[in-house]
Write a structure and sequence with these properties.
It is a single chain. This protein is α/β, with parallel strands linked by helices. The protein folds into three domains: 117 residues, Tetrapyrrole methylase, N-terminal domain (Cobalt-precorrin-4 Transmethylase, domain 1, 3-Layer(aba) Sandwich), CATH 3.40.1010.10; 108 residues, Methyltransferase, Cobalt-precorrin-4 Transmethylase, Domain 2; 43 residues. It is 41% helix and 17% strand. The strands form two sheets. Strands 3-2-4-1-5 form a five-stranded parallel beta sheet, with helices on both faces. Strand 2, helix 2 and strand 3 form a beta-alpha-beta unit. Helix 9 packs antiparallel against helix 10 and helix 10 packs across helix 11. The longest helix has 14 residues. The termini are far apart. It binds S-adenosylmethionine.
Length: 291
């Protein structure tokens, strides 16, 4: 990858324009920043994933900048057009159909191509279904894994889920409504019916719904209520909670080790074997020694 440096510091101002990567609403058209509207109005060019789709937003805010389509099939050609405009000192905006461009949306190659010319790329943050869903899921958000869209076929999907079966982090997936039930069924098989999960559906829209339950119960809810299979959704699965070993299991491992080894070594080995914390193993060892 080519090294790249960009700073907004006025002492290092570039003579080229800036590519602004602009987040747009994920449903409610009011969810757009004043800065985003201003930059879209003043951009010489807007590269939009689907120009017809974005027109509703642009009309709402009376944005009349020239719009060109930017999607995976036209990436290279559009990148050349965008770079020419930027090299002429004009600003360009990149938007997707909803949310933050590049988050399971096109734009990665364009950003790379523009940066390869040492042209500034600047973010205009705003909505993303990922952050919106996490913020209301009630699941831990200190560490999470965003895994985007799962494969559409069950075998490949199951294989992908198995990779993350033991991850302790909250897992976040984007899913298409017609695949939601099959996806939840595979999740219940891989993670177990008791694992807690959340469906965050139609966020910021009229039928916004957030359902949290165990995977087994979620599968049933979605199976009987067809409305849950409509609209856009994010599926979040709670991370695997480390199980602490039972007292009996710890003693079974510790007893023979304590017979053969000094206490410190026996504790260290038992902690490695069981995955239990050393403090807990040490206390158990002392209890055994004390009879
Ligand atoms: N770039 C977008 C973002 O930042 O959220 C995501 C684009 S991705 C192609 C579209 C997926 O995002 C949908 O299939 C759905 O999983 C999720 N999504 C988008 N809007 C949503 C909404 N209003 N409520 C729930 N999920 C949504």
């Amino acid at each position: 990858m080519i090294p790249y440096f960009y700073t907004n510091d006025s002492h290092h101002k570039s003579t080229s324009g800036t590519l602004y990567v602009i987040a747009t609403p994920i449903g409610n058209l009011a969810d757009i920043s004043a800065r985003a509207i201003d930059l879209l109005r003043h951009a010489s060019l807007i590269a939009a994933e689907d120009t017809r789709h974005s027109q509703r937003l642009l009309n709402r805010y009376n944005i009349q900048s020239r719009c060109i389509p930017y999607h995976e099939h036209s990436e290279e050609k559009t990148a050349q057009t965008v770079i020419k405009v930027l090299q002429n000192g004009k600003d360009v905006a990149l938007i997707s159909d909803a949310g933050t461009p590049l988050i399971s949306d096109p734009g990665y190659r364009l950003v790379q191509a523009v940066q390869a010319q040492q042209i500034p790329v600047s973010p205009v943050p705003g909505p993303s279904a990922l952050a919106a869903a996490l913020s209301v899921s009630g699941l831990p958000t200190d560490a999470f894994l965003f895994l985007g869209f799962l494969p559409s076929k069950s075998a490949a999907r199951t294989e992908r889920l198995e990779r993350y079966q033991n991850a302790p982090h909250t897992l976040v997936f984007y899913e298409a409504p017609h695949r939601l039930l099959a996806c939840l069924e595979d999740m219940a098989t891989v993670f177990g019916v008791q694992r807690v999960a959340v469906i965050a559906r139609e966020l910021t829209k009229q039928y916004e719904t957030v359902v949290r339950d165990q995977l087994g119960a979620l599968v049933e809810k979605v199976r009987v209520d067809h409305n849950q299979q409509r609209g856009e959704c994010v599926v979040l699965v709670s991370g695997k909670v480390a199980e602490s070993v039972s007292e009996a299991e710890l003693n079974r491992v510790l007893l023979p080790l304590l017979d053969e080894l000094p206490l410190k070594q026996a504790v260290a080995l038992a902690a490695r074997i069981t995955g239990e914390k050393k403090n807990a193993v040490y206390s158990a060892a002392l209890a055994i020694k004390a009879g």
